[in-house]
Amino acid sequence: MMMLVTIHAVLTMEAAASSLMCRAEDHVYYHEQLGGCLNCEPCNPGEEQMDIQKWAASIPSGIFTIYGPTQCPTCITCREGYFNSERAFQCTRCKNCTLHNKHEVEQCSSISDAECDGVLIDKR
Ligand SMILES: *[C@@H]1O[C@H](CO)[C@@H](O)[C@H](O)[C@H]1NC(C)=O
């Protein structure tokens, strides 16, 4: 009987802990004072959230609690060939005008997509 009670208590605690887990993948972090998950802010234009594994390896392990990290992943500049023109967690791949048989009139930057002109290149 005592055994069953103990098992039940352990299972209940595990269920409580897992439902309280704040996952960086879900764009939330664990707020210690509130004892709950809060939303991360999206990154500024030109930036995206760092790869979560790389981020986790680059910061002090003290921020990781059993309820999840107490900080959000760092935002870094979009990779070459990617842009973020608004506030978002991820950069988007830039358009490739060549693949659409069009001339590029504006190069892709970290905050804006490439722009192609409307003229199809004659490939005959
Ligand atoms: C577009 O695609 C072509 C063909 O795959 C490639 O050679 C070129 O480097 C690409 N340009 C950009 C800007 O990604």
- The radius of gyration is 23 Å
CATH class division: Mainly Beta
- CATH fold title: Tumor Necrosis Factor Receptor, subunit A, domain 2
Bound molecules: 2-acetamido-2-deoxy-beta-D-glucopyranose
Q: What's the domain count?
A: 1
What do you see in this structure?
Helices cover 20% and strands 27% of the residues. By secondary structure, the chain is an alpha+beta fold. It has one domain: Tumor Necrosis Factor Receptor, subunit A, domain 2, CATH 2.10.50. It is elongated, with a radius of gyration of 23 Å. Residues 1-15 have low confidence and may be disordered. The structure holds 2-acetamido-2-deoxy-beta-D-glucopyranose. 2-acetamido-2-deoxy-beta-D-glucopyranose binds at residues 81, 96, 98-99.
List the helices and strands and how they pair.
Blueprint: H1 2-19, E1 28-31, E2 36-39, E3 47-49, H2 52-58, E4 64-65, E5 68-69, E6 75-77, E7 82-83, E8 92-93, E9 102-106, E10 115-120
Antiparallel strand pairs: 1-2, 3-6, 4-5, 7-8, 9-10
The protein binds 2-acetamido-2-deoxy-beta-D-glucopyranose.
2-acetamido-2-deoxy-beta-D-glucopyranose binds next to loops.
